[in-house]
Write a structure and sequence with these properties.
This protein has 109 residues and is an alpha+beta fold. It is 34% helix and 37% strand. It is built from 4 helices and 6 strands; from the N terminus they run H-E-E-E-E-H-E-E-H-H. The protein has helices at residues 5-15, 53-59, 83-86, 89-103; strands at residues 21-26, 29-34, 37-43, 46-50, 65-70, 73-82. It has a 6-stranded antiparallel beta sheet with strand order 1-2-3-4-6-5. Helix 1 (5-15) crosses helix 4 (89-103). The N and C termini lie far apart (29 Å).
């Protein structure tokens, strides 16, 4: 999978100023971690967001947002966002905010 530098730049700008972030190559794309916990991922196909199970219902109603699957297993609390919805600034920021809110509730590593 190829990386999408444009999407990576948008996400990095959206996350600018968030304390506790780190970044690294992961899953054939680029990932942002908050306090060492995976938060957001970006690839040429779109974005992965760890929104938490409480946010899945509204997120999955958005066209182009689907449940995350890994080897046919649904990963609860994670959504994949096609590249199209990622270009909607307000929507992308809403998903990122939901991911930050959720990841901050997770226990420390």
């Amino acid at each position: 999978m190829a990386r999408d530098k444009g999407l990576e730049t948008l996400i990095a700008e959206d996350l600018n100023g968030q304390f506790g972030l780190s970044e690294k190559a992961m899953f054939g794309g680029w990932a942002w971690l908050l306090d060492g916990k995976l938060l957001i991922g970006a690839r040429d196909t779109g974005m992965l967001a760890r929104v938490g199970e409480d946010n899945e219902s509204w997120a999955l109603k958005i066209s182009g947002v689907i449940p995350m699957r890994m080897r046919d297993k649904r990963m609860r609390g994670w959504v994949r966002v096609d590249i199209g919805p990622c270009s909607d600034d307000a929507l992308r920021r809403k998903l990122i905010a939901a991911a930050i809110e959720f990841v901050l509730t997770l226990p420390a590593k």
